[in-house]
């Protein structure tokens, strides 16, 4: 069976890589792209894609679904659009693989309920790179023994959300095994706002944004006279594509929402 795939955000850094990957993948067909503005009738008209890539572009998701009948929508857009896309797709019985970050906890909760009610598969993966999943899993394990933790995530300077979805997910996974605790000492004071980063149950999260970076994260564990560092680096967007393909294939077998690749690997 060929999986019919649509991509929202196809012109973007991740979306364009996903277009390439889906087109080269046996057992998948790219049937449509979703954009929020009219950039042409077909991907073939865009300079960044080969002139024979005759894949229609839609600005309306419902119309895209009605006319091209995709099995899976991959969303690689932005925090403002992703919730609505995922919801509309689910309500039209289209499975979703979501890489876009920046969901609120309430949105995640609502989509979880909606997926269950409609018995429709959805995977929301804050990070598709296998190395990043392992970094999060190892960090969760280390936190059982070393609960004083600071997370430093480093990304390119076009990123919209901070902290990154990966940093948030890392903190959530660690929180499953670490009791909330204040780190440092009670007299600590910020003399410049933000100096100590964001506070997640006492762990601190720091977001670095610089040109030249792609996606990187360090989790630092401090102990008496020692420090453990767990680090992952994505040097390009190909690093995410194995995970995207795995999710497209896996979501076809699901009837619920899964948040995080670590739950299905
Ligand atoms: N889960 C993972 O492993 C990864 C997740 N990400 C996440 O994926 C998302 C995309 O990242 P990235 O590719 O770097 O970002 P880009 O800004 O490069 O790409 C986003 C694309 O989506 C388009 N877009 C915006 N709104 C809509 C909409 N409503 N419908 C259709 N297209 C839309 C943008 O158009 P325009 O530019 O014209 O506004 C742009 O082309 C981010 O949330 C990022 O955090 C990134 C890397 C890995
Ligand atoms: O915006 C990005 O680039 C990335 N976003 C995801 C996140 O917020 O964690 C995944 C990866 O870090 C790249």
UniProtKB/TrEMBL annotation:
Residues 3-128 form the Dihydrodipicolinate reductase N-terminal domain. Keywords: Amino-acid biosynthesis, Cytoplasm, Diaminopimelate biosynthesis, Lysine biosynthesis, NAD, NADP, Oxidoreductase. One of its GO terms (molecular function) is 4-hydroxy-tetrahydrodipicolinate reductase. (S)-2,3,4,5-tetrahydrodipicolinate binds at residues 156, 165-166. One of its GO terms (cellular component) is cytosol. It is found in: Cytoplasm. Its main location: cytoplasm. The active site is at 155 (proton donor/acceptor), 159 (proton donor). NAD(+) binds at residues 9-14, 41, 99-101, 125-128. SUPFAM superfamilies: Glyceraldehyde-3-phosphate dehydrogenase-like, C-terminal domain, NAD(P)-binding Rossmann-fold domains. One of its GO terms (biological process) is lysine biosynthetic process via diaminopimelate. It comes from the Bacteria. Pathway: Amino-acid biosynthesis; L-lysine biosynthesis via DAP pathway; (S)-tetrahydrodipicolinate from L-aspartate: step 4/4. Homotetramer. Catalyzes the conversion of 4-hydroxy-tetrahydrodipicolinate (HTPA) to tetrahydrodipicolinate. This is 4-hydroxy-tetrahydrodipicolinate reductase. It comes from Lysinibacillus telephonicus.
């Amino acid at each position: 069976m060929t999986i019919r795939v649509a991509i929202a955000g196809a012109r973007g850094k991740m979306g364009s890589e996903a277009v390439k990957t889906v087109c080269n993948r046996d057992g998948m067909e790219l049937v449509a792209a979703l954009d929020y503005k009219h950039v042409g009738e077909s991907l073939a008209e865009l300079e960044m894609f080969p002139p024979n890539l005759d894949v229609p572009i839609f600005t309306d998701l419902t119309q895209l679904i009605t006319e091209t009948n995709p099995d899976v929508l991959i969303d690689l857009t932005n925090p403002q659009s992703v919730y609505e896309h995922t919801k509309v797709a689910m309500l039209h019985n289209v499975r979703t693989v979501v890489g876009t970050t920046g969901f609120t906890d309430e949105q995640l909760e609502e989509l979880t309920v909606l997926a269950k009610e409609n018995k429709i598969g959805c995977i929301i993966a804050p990070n598709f790179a296998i190395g990043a999943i392992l970094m999060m899993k190892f960090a969760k394990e280390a936190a059982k023994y070393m609960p004083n933790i600071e997370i430093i995530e480093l990304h390119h300077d076009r990123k919209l959300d901070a902290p990154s979805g990966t940093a948030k997910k890392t903190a959530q996974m660690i929180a499953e095994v670490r009791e909330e605790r204040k780190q440092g000492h009670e007299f600590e004071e910020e003399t410049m706002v933000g100096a100590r980063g964001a506070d997640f149950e006492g762990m601190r999260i720091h977001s670095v944004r610089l040109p030249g970076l792609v996606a990187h994260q360090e989790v630092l564990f401090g102990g008496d006279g020692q420090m453990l560092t767990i680090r992952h680096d994505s040097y390009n967007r190909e690093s995410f594509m194995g995970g995207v393909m795995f999710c497209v294939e896996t979501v076809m077998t699901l009837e619920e929402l899964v948040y995080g690749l670590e739950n299905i690997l």
